[in-house]
């Protein structure tokens, strides 16, 4: 749901609250879409970052298309919004299969994910009892980051056979999670090539057994922006790219002025003896994610801008308790004079985690003039899907 908020600016709502710059988000979306068009591969956006129907519309301006979700609550909400081609990219808990069946019976093509014989058997049994095939993707592990079976694991063929015999085998899915630690363009290209090779090899191994493999799915934001050859791949999944964040900027996948998500906070105190400025936005507003801690530049809990989005040099959110943020200056920078009541925006380490702390987004548009206002106009308020 989109709520008109044209008379508000970022100085009006109580802080803290999340802000989306629609101009940057749209630009980010077009960048990846154009790149994958050149590579000849379909994009299946992952909506887990924003969990918002209006943000998904930015990612697919032509109308509802194929998407990826991380929860069944997302699948149900997006099905209500007209989306009928959905991949649920988290290993399936058999207890959730009745919800999967309910979506399938609504006419939604909902693919589930698995990496074990037990899950495959549960899907086959449930599909047989319901008289409804349950499309399933086998998760393949390409880099040891998370779940999945390796390409040479004997269980790959066994899982494939169980699904094939039940009429449920849809394909394979790979996620190069270690690409989030690939700090050079060369490393990201290698991660993308490895991701592709693992997915294609797994698909070919299943096809060699006589199984039909329709979907060969790869994806992460770093590899989607680094891949040079996606031969054999049918689709790419990515989600963070619509907002980006400091981790992605630290890797070099984007620039700071691509970051489309921020959190507005207010200065509520000063501790000059410690070199601190206190705000009303703590880890409940930003999350506890410290994803830049292992990068070349540790950005604390986030970088700080003024309310218009201009970076304040050297100012970082260095500490956080539940509802308090601590701002301090890096070495070589003076602590700015920010009176109590000053509104600031904090750029997050991890957009997915920070967005999850909020019920929705106040939308601004840095591509439109603000007619002399002291703060950007709030163009809309967009709701966000929660729960599992």
TrEMBL record:
The keyword Ubl conjugation does not apply. It comes from the Bacteria. Residues 260-365 form the D-serine dehydratase-like domain. Transmembrane segments: none annotated. Pfam families: Ala_racemase_N, D-ser_dehydrat. InterPro entries: Ala_racemase_N, D-amino_acid_metab_enzyme, D-ser_dehydrat-like_dom, D-ser_dehydrat-like_sf, PLP-binding_barrel. The keyword Lyase applies. Keywords: Lyase. Belongs to the DSD1 family. This is DSD1 family PLP-dependent enzyme.
């Amino acid at each position: 749901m989109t709520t008109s908020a044209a008379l508000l600016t970022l100085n009006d709502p109580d802080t803290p609250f999340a802000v989306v710059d629609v101009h940057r988000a749209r630009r980010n979306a077009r960048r990846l879409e154009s790149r994958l068009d050149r590579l000849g591969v379909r994009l299946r956006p992952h909506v887990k970052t924003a969990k918002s129907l209006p943000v998904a519309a930015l990612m697919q301006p032509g109308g509802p298309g194929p998407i990826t979700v991380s929860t069944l609550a997302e699948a149900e909400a997006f099905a209500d919004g007209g989306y009928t081609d959905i991949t649920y990219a988290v290993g399936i808990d058999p207890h959730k299969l009745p919800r999967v069946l309910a979506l399938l019976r609504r006419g939604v093509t909902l693919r589930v994910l698995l990496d074990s014989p037990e899950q495959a058997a549960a899907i086959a049994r449930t599909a047989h009892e319901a008289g409804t095939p349950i499309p399933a993707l086998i998760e393949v592990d390409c880099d040891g980051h998370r779940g999945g079976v390796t390409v040479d694991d004997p269980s790959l063929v066994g899982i494939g056979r169980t699904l094939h015999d039940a009429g449920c085998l849809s394909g394979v899915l790979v996620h190069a999670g270690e690409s989030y630690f690939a700090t050079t363009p060369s490393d990201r290209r290698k991660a993308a090539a490895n991701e592709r090779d693992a997915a294609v090899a797994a698909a070919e191994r299943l096809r060699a057994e006589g199984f039909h493999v329709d979907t060969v799915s790869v994806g992460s934001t770093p590899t989607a922006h680094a891949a040079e050859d996606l031969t054999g791949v049918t689709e790419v999944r990515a989600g963070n790219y619509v907002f980006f964040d400091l981790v992605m900027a630290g890797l070099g996948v984007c620039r700071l002025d691509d970051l489309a998500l921020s959190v507005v906070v207010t200065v509520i105190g000063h501790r000059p003896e410690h070199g601190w400025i206190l705000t009303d936005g703590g880890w409940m507003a930003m999350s506890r994610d410290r994803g830049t801690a292992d990068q070349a530049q540790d950005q604390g809990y986030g970088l700080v801008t003024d309310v218009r989005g201009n970076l304040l040099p050297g100012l970082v959110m260095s500490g956080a308790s539940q509802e308090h943020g601590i701002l301090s200056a890096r070495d070589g920078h003076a602590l700015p004079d920010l009176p109590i009541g000053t509104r600031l925006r904090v750029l997050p380490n991890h957009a997915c985690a920070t967005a999850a702390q909020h019920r929705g987004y106040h939308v601004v548009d840095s591509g439109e003039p603000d007619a002399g206002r002291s703060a950007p106009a709030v163009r809309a308020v967009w709701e966000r899907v929660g729960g599992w």
